[in-house]
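Table 4 source record.
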Amino acid sequence: MDIVQNPTDIQQCAGERRRSGQTIGLVPTMGALHQGHLSLVAAARAACDFVITTIFVNPKQFGPGEDFEDYPRTMESDLDLCRAAGSDLVFTPAVCDMYVPGSSTTVEVAGITEILEGQSRPTHFDGVTTLVAKLFNMTLPDRAYFGQKDYQQQMIIRRMVSDLNWHVEIINCPTVREPDGLAMSSRNRYLSPVERDQALILNRVLEQADQLAAAGQMSPQEIQTGMAETLRNAEGIEPDYAVVVESESLQPMEKNFGCAVALLAARVGRTRLIDNRILTFAE
């Protein structure tokens, strides 16, 4: 496994692979890797000739007062995990290489970035799309792998790829969960043992929403109301949002059947967690 830090070097390497006819799979991460990240690497390894994993804690997607300085950085163990999972190359750029002094270009996707996470973190998605655009230009991937846990982010990246005519296939990989159902997240390590138990309500709320949708006896709005109420009444939980929306537009459902997604965000202690579940309403 190669480790590359310079953007020019990664561009040269990716270009050589493309010219030789190899397919490139890209797995963008911010490090602090867990089994969820490694499942993305495994999916890329199974489908692509050459797998690039990126490790970069992106300052542009952190807002004021967020945890950029405290975000876990575990490079040594991350590299070991990438090697074991089958990455061919890990790209670990410095901030000054990704954002050279004087750079003033931002990639913005309007509309879908302004709701849900965008309301709570208004600069977050511009930072994500700008970085992912740069990574696509540097690594020239045929496929890029993202986890379902960041559902809205994935939809935004799909929109960006379509709008800018990139020939990159965006692959959605299922959320990986702990045995008790908590969605794996690098931020889970912030939780105290008590908070870790309290956080389990997030997945329980989504499981209940899934069951109610399948039963077809409650409307999306009714399920959404129940989700929010359960979270408000849960000990140690400070909900941000809990919604049931159309799975493609993330807008309120106009019909009481079809495919939807339940999304929620909440603080458990000082830690902000997100999760979601795809729902299918009975006709």
